Amino acid sequence: MKGEIRATLSAVAAAAMLVACASKEPATSKPADAITQDDTSAEYQRLADNANQQLTCKRQTVLGTRVPTVVCVTQDELKAQRERSDEAMHDIQANESMRQAMPDRPPPPPSPSPRQ
């Protein structure tokens, strides 16, 4: 029984591999050195542009509601959000150090010296 199943699975896997190989397009007749630098850089640029246009989606609950919504942004938008967040954190940290240098209230007046 196990031998029959194993033989059947092997035959199906071999058939799938043969079909996959047979369905590929024939190799181009261009020699390998015919691909120019311009073709390569154009392909790279197309891939880079495509990668920047891919969406990243996540569930977020909007402030004041309990209903999560799906928010999708591109990689460029996500990068811009991170840069703005980093700038805001830098500003907050810079203002905090200035606040610590300046007291919130003036120092108390000196206590009166006892009369003699």
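Above is the first protein from milestone M3; the second protein from the same milestone is given next.
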Amino acid sequence: MGLFWEIVKWRKDCLMSSVPFRVVELIETFDRKAKALHSQQYNETQLRREFIDPFFEELGWDVTNKSANAHSGWPIK
């Protein structure tokens, strides 16, 4: 089986599992951009906005405080 079909099978397996599809997309994009992400021009803020925040939002976290809770009222899970 070629690499292409292995990736197709892996994506299908992910869709059928409990891993959210958006998380799979983020991982794939991160892997494709890995070399560029290590450059001096790509900073921590860009990494957080492009990958980390969307990852946690997909898992149900209110990363940007959209619910406008006061800091002392943030739910801790």
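Note on the second protein: The longest helix spans residues 44-58.
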